[in-house]
Amino acid sequence: MRHKTVTAAILSLFLLPAIGAPATPFNRHNSTQAFQKNQEGGIQQVVAKDPKDQALVAAIRSYLEAEAQRFGNGDYSGPFKGVRYLKAVKPSEISIIYRNVPAGAAIDYVGADSAAVDAIHKWLGAQLSD
């Protein structure tokens, strides 16, 4: 019986979201998530593979909108690697802009100066290496 308890505890480490962050309503089977660097910082975008799945599209939009709000407030909790780069910059030095895109949503990360852009690029690099 102890083996099942330990296995369940280990599995929960992989299946549960980070404390304080909601579970993502999307995965690699039902959506595509992309991170892209640009001169101003970068973009995170999630779109449903089936654009007719309106429930998924709404869930993606709700999740990314909440994430943009959290990140805009300097709360970088969530299932992301490399948040230490964003934490090194004052929240006021990064503009976080949520927007709807066809079949999903995007967040634009815009740095106020080269140090903020560099922090965004490093954070995006951590996402791309995942």
SSE ordering: HEEHHEEH
Mean pLDDT: 84
Helix and strand content put the structural class at alpha+beta
The residue fraction in helices comes out at: 40-55%
Radius of gyration: 16 Å
Number of strands: 4
Question: Strand sequence of the main sheet, in spatial order?
Answer: 1-2-4-3
Distance between the termini: 35 Å
Secondary structure elements and their pairing?
Blueprint: H1 2-15, E1 31-38, E2 41-48, H2 54-72, H3 83-87, E3 94-101, E4 104-111, H4 114-128
Antiparallel strand pairs: 1-2, 2-4, 3-4
Task: Describe this protein's structure.
By secondary structure, the protein is α+β, with helices and mostly antiparallel strands. It has 4 helices and 4 strands, in the order αββααββα. The protein has helices spanning about 1-15, 55-70, 85, 115-130, and strands at about 30-40, 40-50, 95-100, 105-110. The protein has a 4-stranded antiparallel β-sheet with strand order 1-2-4-3, covered by helices on one side. The protein is elongated, with a radius of gyration of 16 Å.
